[in-house]
Amino acid sequence: xxxxxxxxxxxxxxxxxxxxxxxxxxxxxxxxxxxxxxxxxxxxxxxxxxxxxxxxxxxxxxxxxxxxxxxxxxxxxxxxxxxxxxxxxxxxxxxxxxxxxxxxxxxxxxxxxxxxxxxxxxxxxxxxxxxxxxxxxxxxxxxxxxxxxxx
Length: 151
Ligand SMILES: [Zn+2]
Hints:
Blueprint: E1 3-7, H1 27-35, E2 40-46, E3 67-70, E4 73-76, E5 100-106, H2 115-124, H3 133-138
Parallel strand pairs: 1-2, 2-5
Antiparallel strand pairs: 3-4
Bound molecules: zinc ion (ZN).
Zinc ion binds at residues 46, 48, 81-82, 107, 151.
């Protein structure tokens, strides 16, 4: 069975969002169009607690995009984004959701907990595929580098 995995197409990764990807909104109509071609559509959703370990704001004296050691692993520090229950964490407006079979939330605890989802996305979505608005900006930092770092 073929499946379409839409990765982190969320408000905070769109222009104007907390961790915006330039032109990130352009992936939405493509993702919507592709959904019809797949019998199974699932999405991942960054869903961080406010005290998430990847947020620079939770490490006094540290800056966004700075690298730290977090529980023995290198971690890039991000701006606060996709906090559980906030508008920025919602799936992007305009993303068709009727056909989505499952939403896999990730980054849901303080530390690094996205292993399973990152393994899936790294293997299924080759570079250049439509995998979410976030990928273009943070591909070098995200699932492709697991477990070295995650956002
Ligand atoms: Zn994140």
